[in-house]
User: What shape does this take?
Amino acid sequence: MKSKINIYLIEYAINAILRQKSKSFFIVFVFTLLIFLLTSVFFITNSIRYELDSTVDTLPQIIVQKIKAGRHYDIDVDAVDNIIEIAGVSDAVARVWGYYYFENAGVNFSVVGIEQYEKQYKNSFEKIADKFDLSDTESNPSMVVGHGVKKTMHQSYYKEYFNFIKPDGTLKKVNIAGVFDADTQLESNDIIVTSKEIAREIFDIDEAKATDIVVKVANPKEIPMIVSKIKSIYPDSRIITSQDLKVSYQNIFDYKSGIFLALFIVSLFTFFIIIYDKSSGLSSEEKREIGILKAIGWRVDDVLKEKFYESFIISFFAYILGVGLSFAYVYIFGAPILQNIFVGYSQLKTSFELPFIFDAQTLFLVFFLSVPIYVAATIIPSWKVATLEADEVIR
Amino acid sequence: MNKKTLYLIYIFSALLSLIIIETIYLSSEKSMSSALVEKKMAFVELVGLPDLAISTEATFVRHRSLSDIFSIYKDDGTLREYFPSTYAISHSHIINPVVIKRDNEK
Assistant: This one.
């Protein structure tokens, strides 16, 4: 079989594209835009999911919280003793944390209280905070804050310390001892880490109460059993496992990119229908062209090959251009405008610097959603004309 | 091979090499190094809160455990969806009168 790429047919295809400059330009423009949009959304989703997945395993395995009257309620610290006695539980810790609404800026800070004297925390602080001085004493309370928090406080002229307004209206002055590393901004932007005592004071949580209890399990296979045991001891509790959190991550981004994909597919197919419609009502000139080609000796498969080259050049060009542009748009420029689909409307904005991952699956998916369909939408109408008799078409 | 075919080949190879250069640049500059992953893991372990700080306006987004149990979208730890309306409908602009007032004054 002597089926090689026919260079003359390619030349003919290029000339055919150039002959209809404005039409070809328009198609390339719309096609590039569609591919650019679709790949950008997929890139953003994949990067966020990658970011989440890389840290999801360090989240607590089980979180136990108390529900009262259909709402979250402070749990008794005593519950820790009962939970730790369950076989298979290696550790249980009562946590104190919550939202602090800073009214002047209209933002929510997440205040997390930790036992600052534990050695493990000291080690991790050295790793994740730019500079910090945790010389925390009763007379000199301090906290480590995320970048967004620091910026917001600065705007309200709090540079060295911050005055928390306690529930009873009095002020609690806490020094800013350090800032979390800018690299962790996607995680740490809204966080304030301080000692448990200060967090209790800010939220007015009693010593005997805690926000929730985190449970560590030595063997992850035992988690469902331990969950059911905790549930039987505390029927009023709601228990969130790390598996639930993984599912929730999946759900959020499947939903968001799914909605976008659904909208996109509508526009993509509208585009193809327009192309198909335009080419199936091939203009008399184009019909004549095919007729003449056949009359001078071209076979049907020559005509189809030429049409294939023509549509492939256009669609592949648009595909590469679209992908190249979206790489730059998402990862170099931080996806302006489009990021608003994914971020909330809070005033406390993070920089949208996403980690780059080369996702071949997405690239193939977009390729097969676009290029072959476009090629088919152009070839089929030409094939219909090319199978007719030459004199019938010319006349 | 005539000039136009050569140009076509040049254009395609230029575009492809642009993508390759972009990929190499991005994977060296913008991808997560293992040190960075460790740093992020250390942070998440310290704080113990799920999700990213990109949506902080609702208690059930970043703090799953502060949500209530009777709303449709936030009724469980798996958080089926939050803010389905953010695609098409803008959020309420009266949520924070203090900031709105300040912005208007500027």
